Amino acid sequence: MIRFAPILLAIIGAILMFRISAWRSGKNLDAQSTPLKDPALLALTKRMAVELDLPRLKVHIYEIDQINGLAAADGRIFITRGFMNKYRDGIVDAEELASVIAHELGHVALGHSKRRMLDFAGANAIRVVLMTVIGRIIPFIGLYIVNALVSMLTARLSRQDEYEADAYASALLSKAGIGVAPQIAMFQKLDYLAGKTGGDGQLAWLMSHPKTEDRIAAIRSLDAKSKT
């Protein structure tokens, strides 16, 4: 039992860190967000809510300049002010922004927040085990090797979540009569948007996510299968 104590402590510590981080994020979102009021977007979210048998979708505007969509652990969806500005400027339209909301709904419905807590705890446990083994063989460089390996693992898990949320969004958009064309168009604009932003306004949605062309190919494949 003593032999496994460091691993157990790593898991417990990771879970506590994740919960504290989620609590802080929730407080920050509460302080810097307001409910979505745009009529066109609200009409589209209502159509999606009907398909989900919900009275409404809880969508808020998060007052930061980054271009991103977020899903809170309590089920609320957030679209950043940076994204809304692109909508106001006509760079993205209501249906395309609705596809972002549908994607974030996928994260909520598929329990990705809870799964990421377990993944985070597991990654820390793996880090402890690898450091115990590799750290003894390569005392100094071992730390960098372990961190690189764990980062690759967590990135792979994150990409899996994104593909799953994309598939959920595609199905929901199709059922709501919006279709996947706006979802594909949104992805096609992501590289352009990334090139137009930098520093604090960098397109956070592309970080640790699958390649845009791969996501589009997956959506088209699923859409084709649904029509056969």
Model description:
With 228 residues, the chain is an alpha+beta fold. It has one domain (2-226). Helices cover 68% and strands 6% of the residues. It has 8 helices and 4 strands, in the order H-E-H-E-E-E-H-H-H-H-H-H. It has helices at 5-31, 39-51, 81-88, 94-109, 112-137, 141-175, 181-196, 212-226; strands at residues 33-35, 59-62, 69-71, 77-80. It has a 4-stranded mixed β-sheet with strand order 1-2-4-3. A hairpin with a 5-residue loop joins strand 3 (69-71) and strand 4 (77-80). Helix 5 packs antiparallel against helix 6. The N and C termini lie far apart (55 Å). The model is unreliable at 198-205 (pLDDT under 50).
Describe the SSE topology.
Layout: H1 5-31, E1 33-35, H2 39-51, E2 59-62, E3 69-71, E4 77-80, H3 81-88, H4 94-109, H5 112-137, H6 141-175, H7 181-196, H8 212-226
Parallel strand pairs: 2-4
Antiparallel strand pairs: 1-2, 3-4
Helix pairs in contact: 1-5, 2-4, 4-6, 4-7, 5-6, 6-8, 7-8
